[in-house]
Amino acid sequence: QVQLVESGGGLVQAGGSLRLSCAASGSIFSIIVTGWYRQAPGKQRELVATITSGGSTSYADSVKGRFTISRDNAKNTVYLQMLSLKPEDTAVYYCNTASLRLGVRTPSWGQGTQVTVSS
Fold this sequence. Notes:
Layout: E1 2-7, E2 10-13, E3 18-26, E4 31-39, E5 46-52, E6 57-59, E7 67-72, E8 77-82, E9 91-101, E10 104-109, E11 113-118
Parallel strand pairs: 2-11
Antiparallel strand pairs: 1-3, 3-8, 4-5, 4-9, 5-6, 7-8, 9-10, 9-11
C-alpha cells in the first residue's frame, strides 16, 4: 500500500507560479509511475503529467512548456512546478501512483490540493 500527501496549492494571480509536492510512503519500491491529475468544478478529472520509475515524463498538451514534473528519490517526493499559470488551471490537483506487485497493478490517490488562479 502506498500513501500520498499533496501540498503546495494555493491562490495565485494569472502569470504566477506554484510548486506542488507529493510525498509518498509505504510500499514505495513498488511504484512504477506517478502522475498529477486535476479536476475543475463540473469537469472530469484529467491527466496533467506523469513520471515513470525510469524518469520518463509526459504532459498534457494544455500544460506543455509551462509545467514540469520531477522527483527527489531521497525524499520520496514528486513535484509539479507550474509556471505561467492561467485561470483555466484552477482545479483540485491530485497525485496518483501505480504500483506493481506480483503482477497486480494498484492505484493510490492523495487527498488533493486546491489551486486557484485569479485573472
